[in-house]
Structure formats: C-alpha cells, structure tokens
Amino acid sequence: MLDAQQIALRFLSTRLQVHPDVVRYLQEQDNPDLIERIIAQVPPDTLVVTSRHIPGLTSRRDGVRFLTDPSFEIVSGAAGTSGSVNGTSDYLHYFRDRYQRLGGMIRSRTSGMPIEGLLRSNRYRQEECTIIGMVAEVKSTANGHRIAELEDPTGAIAVLFRKDKPIFSDAERLVHDEVIGVKGKLSHDGKLFFAEQMFRPDIRIDNTPYKSDSPGKAVLISDIHVGSNTFLEEQWNRFADWLQDEPAHYLLIAGDLVDGVGIYPGQEQELTIRNIHEQYDRLGEMLSDLPSRMRIIISPGNHDVVRGAEPQPVIPKPFSDKFPKNCTLVENPALVNLQGVRVLMYHGRSIDDMIGLIPGASYEKSGQMMEEMLTRRHLAPAYGRKTPIAAGKQDRMIIDPVPEILHTGHVHIRGITMYRGVLGINAGTWQSQTSFQKQMNVHPTPALAVTVDLQTLQPETVSFM
Ligand SMILES: [Fe+2]
225 CA to middle of ligand 1, Å? Predict the structure, then answer.
C-alpha cells in the first residue's frame, strides 16, 4: 500500500493540497501512476484535489464512490494485499484495530467512558453510563443469566445480562471477541456492571443500498468442488449453456473452486481427479467454455490450494494458468464494486464457529448466519476457533464499508436474506451430498445460481438440477 504522507508530499511538490478521501483512495488503488495521471489532469487553478478530480468517478448518497474502470473495481482484497504475519506484535495491532474500528462505529451513536475511569472512583456507582469493550469471555451463570468479561484498552469488568431483561436475546448471542457497547450501572462494590441496554456496531437502520444506474446482472455461485466424485458435471454443463443466452455481466465464485487433496481423511476415495494441478486445470477449461464477455471474479475457500488462514491470498500462478483472461482473482474476503454496487465476497468458514456459539444457529439458516456477521460488522467475530485468522496489522474481516450484497458459501445450503438494506446471498454448491454430509445429516441444495439485477438488487434463484 502507498504511504499516505508520500502521496500528500507528491501533490504538495506540485503546489497542490489533497483531500484525505483522495489519499485513502490512492492508497487502496496502490498505483503510483494514478497519482501522476491525476496531477496531469487537474485544472491549473486547483488548490485542493478532491474526489471531483478523479476520472470515472460516480457519486452516491453516503458520500463518494470512486471508480477507475466505470464498471468494475476491487475495493479491497486485490492480489497481494493479504500480507504475511509476524508474531505477537501483529496480534496486538490486530486486536487494537478491531477494537478501535468497531468501537468507533458504536461511538458514532453513543459515547462511552473508559472502564478504568469507571472503576477508579466511586463517583459512578449507581449512575447510568456506557462502556465499549471487546468480549473477552462469556458464559451462563447457574441461574441462567449471562455474564461477560468486557475489556477496553484501559481495563476490564464483568458485565451481567439478566435473563428477565429485554436485552437478554442479544446477550444470549454474544460471542467472544466481538465488540459491543453496554449501558447500565456499576454495583455498590464496583465489581459488577449491570447491563440495561446493549449496542452492536451494526448496520444503520436507515441504510439505503446503492443501485446501478445502468443495466447489469451478476450471477453468484460458490463451492464447485471440481475433482470430487460428487461434483455435478451434467448440471454444471446445463448452467454453462444457460449462461450463453443470459445477459450476465459478472460471475462471482465465493470459494471452494476445487475439492483439493488431503483436506479430510480418506478424501482420495472420493476424488475423480487426484492431482491438485489437474483439478485447477479442469476448472480452467470449464471457465473457458463460459461466455468471454462475462467478467469472472474468483475468491478462494478452505478447500483451495492457498493457506487456510484468512484473509486467504488469491489462487497462485501455476494453478491459475489455465484460467481464461476474463477471470479476476481476488482474496478471501474481498470487496468488489460492480457498477457502483459493492459485493463483499467471503467464503464463510466462520459459520462453523457461529453454529457452535449462537443458540438456534444451524447450517440450514445460512441467511441468519449472514445477519449475525452484519450486526457485528465482522465476518469472523470469534477468534481462535475453527476459522484460522492471520492477525495482520489491520483487521480485514471487519465489514466496512457496508456492502450492498454479502456473498458467502461454505455451508452448501442456499440462503437469501435482507438485513437493513444489505442483501445476503449463499447460492449453495455444485456438489451432491457427500458421505461426510450424510453422516452429519446435512442436506445440501446443489446446482443453484442466484442472479442479481444491479439496477433493482432483486435476487432470483435458478436451478439446474
Ligand atoms: Fe465447500
């Protein structure tokens, strides 16, 4: 990523000031040539370079939307941005970043006080106040209440959520490492905080999604699992035929492109293609048969050849050699912009963790699982369980900005939801029930594609069974 100060200095060297939004945009684009192009294009009497000076820009209600290619842009998760992880210092940065940014979203609606300040004097005993912290631990008491250890950079306090209070349904769904705000009172002895109200970072209730002003259609799928003996080739071919006549501009694939090798014990017996290179080559052939007018956007999943820790890097070179030219490889997660409509692609491994932590959660309810992510503004809130997270300096799993569409996969069961203006889509899979799923009593919904009209944001499910 380009350095913010250097960007500003480059503009200053030509007597131009630059708006922070533009600096942020240039950092995201990570392309020094773009700076030069902008400098060359601004009118001679310009003092401050603002979003107005960016070529191909469109504006939207909640501020400015930048586009260099008016139809497609990778906002985050471009190749090479996942970075490496170097030990405990990044781990500290990672959690600080998570707390600051998610806490900031809560702070924009309610002000909080530092936990240390609350505990230091007895001035606040029995006086209502709000604290904002990360859930270090959460459990049920013998009487069925919930108790959470809430931490901020200054201190920690035990917070009690009584089962007879209206907030209990929110508290029941607390998971460790999510960031929340709590309004309530400190006990007489200063050891316990009684919660009355709880705030999650959440999507604003008046969130209005952006709709494209020109015609466009996206097709969303995931979990193809090429190479598995349960991959539904005939149904895939039907899908490929259908795409020939379908005015689709974009095909988005949210991970598990191939079945992989050595992913689970005994997998060899369930593979028709046992070589990982050949699995990707076969996928490349399949994608080459699709209309070349379509842009195909591909992110990895836990069956793919890249590291399991999220953010997962793009499918690397030797494996993607046979992919056609109209493919764009992105990381997992990635935020892409289709004609102004932002789609957050995330494979969805964290759903495994949420199912173990959130009462009522299940694989059948993939729509609800996406809502759980959106209300926490985080794709994988519970750290250190089945979802490995590469703790970089920034928490890339935070949902910011708010997308128009959240596209997940992983569970192999279709789910569509609308949560505060955000459309959540999980299109299922291209694999019939595996022996493992049979054991686990999981019933997949295979061979479905979900299309979205970018002008109306209306989803439609098409079956190829
Ligand atoms: Fe999968």
Answer: 7
